[in-house]
Amino acid sequence: MCAARSILLMSSSRLHGSNYLEHARGQLEELFRAKNVKTVLFVPYALPDHDKYTQLVRDALQPWGFKVEGLHTKPNHSLALTQAQAIFVGGGNTFVLLSKLYELQLIDLIRQLVLERGITYVGSSAGTNVATRSIHTTNDMPVAQPPTFDALNLVPFNINPHYLDAELNSQHKGETRDERLAEFVAYHKLPVLGLREGTSLSVQGDCAKLLGCRNAKLFKA
Q1: Is 125 a known active-site residue?
Q2: What is the pTM of this model?
Q3: What is the pLDDT of residues 170-185, one digit of tens each?
Q4: Which of 73, 127, 151, 209 is deepest in the core (most CB within 10 A)?
Q5: Distance CA 137, CA 177 (A)
């Protein structure tokens, strides 16, 4: 039982035909205002330029009435997280992101803050991957080596962001996304949620709800 959870896990921060985060504006506004969030602490470690990435998020959220601060600018990361009203972990490379969170020794702290204190957590793409049991089902290239694939475990299953259905008439002869996810499920006996573009998973307490105009696909043993 995790009655304190207030989580939004987005497949992506961009959707074709809309501005950055615009497709999730209503979801973010509802989430933040329900918890009286005025300032969002952004975790930019999944991309190389942390200042530029934080400014991108600031440019999106500030016109909606939310201040954005970058975790990388804080002299004491643990204190900044503890004092945060909301934590937003951005997308990019999941392996780089998880490696940095372990390097800074922030995994256990973030888990405690979200599951026990109810601090709002928003993840997008890689930020969604690290919110799950493990990063085994990311689409990213393993350019960095975290000490383990185990992640924040804020939800008891894996997610595959940017999930794409197989093209029936494709001439591609490699494995499809479905085949790769089914292989993970068969090996680990753990469920995976394929989260399509433009969709998000809202988790409030022990209730999870799919948001957006498309369905998700659940892979299970």
Answers
A1: yes
A2: 0.95
A3: 666 668 899 999 999 9
A4: 127
A5: 10
